Amino acid sequence: MNKEVKIDPEKIHLFHINIVESSIKDVAQKGDNNFKINIAQTTMHNLKDERVKIGLFIDLIHEEVTSDAKAHFVFDFHFKIEELTNYYELKEDNSPIFTGVLIATLLGISFSTARGIIFERLSNTNMQGMILPVVSPQKMLALQKKVDSKED
Q: What is the per-residue DSSP string for 54-109?
């Protein structure tokens, strides 16, 4: 595989977003937004259809020990990638190894989109106005929840 793979944004199509889980346990008063964020991700693929699914697991947990305020979200982002074969090599067992730049790009798109959805979901709560931090997609690569797997 060419190590200098460049991403062509026009060949990446986010065609479906599924909010798998969403729960919010609100804080008692507005402005009490001292939360830590936990993020994990999964990837699945369908090489034949040139599709990749990014699963994001985002938990906002209040830093105050006595508070049970939290928000939990699970998203699935479905992408169609034109010329997907340019972004992976097959191992001996025919499983793909995707380029880090492709997965990091998809994670960046997914997390940015999730930030907006979460901002909107929190708008009618006492957590309104909370903006999730920008997170490096490269760091998210290390936060894999389970082994990459093939999507049926």
A: EEEEEEEEESSTT---EEEEEEEEEEEETTGGGGEEE-TTS-EEE-HHHHHHHHHH
Task: For residue 18, give the H/E element and its range.
Answer: strand 12-25
Closest CA to 59 of 37, 30, 78: 37
Which residue type is seen at 127? M
103 HSE (CA, 13 A, CB side): 22
Give Rg (Cα) of the chain: 17
pTM: 0.88
CA distances from 49 to 25, 72, 81 (A): 39, 31, 9
Q: First CA to last CA across the chain, in angstroms? A: 26
Cα separation, 120 vs 130, in Å, equals: 10
Q: For 94, phi and psi rounded to 5 degrees?
A: 65, 15
Sign of CA dihedral 106, 15, 111, 57: negative
DSSP letter assigned to residue 1: -
Strand partners, 51: 46, 80
Give residue-wise pLDDT tens across range 49-68: 999 999 999 999 999 878 88
